[in-house]
Structure formats: C-alpha cells, structure tokens
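Troubleshooting: if your tokenizer reports a length mismatch, compare your output against this known-good record of 148 residues.
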Amino acid sequence: MTFWPIERGCFSKYQIPDFYCGFDGVAHGGMVACILYEVASWCVNTVVYHLVLTRKMEITFLKPVPTDVDLFMVSLVTHMDAKNVATYSAIVNAEGIRLAEATADFSLTPHGIIAKLANMEEETLQQLHEQIVVPIKAYMTSLKNNGK
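Known-good structure output:
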C-alpha cells in the first residue's frame, strides 16, 4: 500500500487480492482489520512522527468488502495529547460508501520503554526509528511541499 498525507492524516488506494477472500469476492475480515490498522498506523506516523504502541482498536464491519476492486482508505487523528493519539479510519468503495471503519488508540511511549518491552537495546530502537520514522517524515514532507 502507498499512503499520501492529508490534513490530520493520510489516505490510500488499494485492491484486496481475491486470495484474501473469506467468501468468494468478499475480503476476509482479518485482511480488512489489517488494512484498517495499517492506515491508522501510517496516519499516526504521518502526523506525529513517533514510534507508538497500540492500546486499542475497535472495528465495525458495515458492508461486505469486495476483493479485486478499487478501495479507498482514509485515517484521521481525532485526538492527540502529550501521551496519546486516537484515530478514525474507514474503507470506502468507489461510490463513497463506507464498508468498514475503526477507531484506534495509540500510546506515545518513550523509546526506552518500547525497547524494554521489545527486549532490545534502546540504541537499536533508536536506529529503527531513524530507519522507519525519519524517512516517513521526509517522504510525507516532500509530498506536502509538492502539493500532492
């Protein structure tokens, strides 16, 4: 998936391959959940540029999500403070009908705590941050500066 920045979030366009179906032509719920999680995570990365921990995600399946058709995903930050970020995400079809949606809560956790939870050295996590988050920030900033 490719993500593009928008005010307070990001969006994506994607076709779920048919081999991710639960029933013929209908995406498996786990794949729908995965896509909603990805767009929410990228939303946080786009707005906050900080590694986070997911605390909670709640998904509502509104209509069957088809495979092999253009789908649009959007996620927006709905709340942010010094320790928490909340998002709203949706999968929408080409007609603009919401097929699935999710809310998610993330914790802006210090790198030292994340490193301890992940059983890694803080320096290794900092390198991971520099390999993942810093390029995301540069990419998103370039898109914003180019008006895309």
